[in-house]
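Notes to self, CLRN1 protein:
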Amino acid sequence: MPAQQKKLIFCTAGVLSLACALGAAAAVGTQLWVRGSVLCSTGALLVNASGPELHKFIGDIQYGLFSGQRVRQCGLGGRPSHFSFFPDLLRIIPASIHVSVILFCTVLIVFALVAAGFFMLNAFGSPYETLHGPVGLYLWSFISCSCGCLIMILFSSEVKIHHLSEKIANFKEGTFTFKTHSEQFADSFWTILVCSLVHFLNALLIRFAGFEFPFSKSKDSGTITGAVDLMY
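result:
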């Protein structure tokens, strides 16, 4: 492939990696990971609410990795409140999973920046044969893509399996019991998915630029080596 086309491909991959790093950093600091609604089951059972009356007992909840907000309704109007995971909710959430999600987000941002830098080095500099070359490009893209997948798996398990929204809604609630009415992942969660797909696309761009996979060997080189061995 001509050098100009390779430069264009590497520049494109570098810009995509940089955009992923900035997008992931913005996603980590927002409260747009989960949106949903919670039902005040205690109040609804007391008055046997159904139909239109049930809406008076449905509140909203929204949170990210560090903080969030909720509006709890039990037929007497909404009670808005804000909360933070550290240190308010640290005792009721699966702390090891939550910290792991934040850690992998940090690794994703760092290695996306590293990948962007190495793509630019390969586009405008003289690439080395090891970490600056195809092995490094595949490595950084693979690490970033893997971290994005792990973030989605861990956070999904925290929300769905460990019922994170219900634990947050019932935090410091002694009288009423809240249950999840509806729940969906929001923009920041899907940003991490896009970042993972972009890094997978970058790996394809590396292959498209003419680089062989690091673990592949040329058949011709093997044949020549074998012939040399027979001579000696």
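- The radius of gyration is 25 Å.
- The chain has seven helices and five strands.
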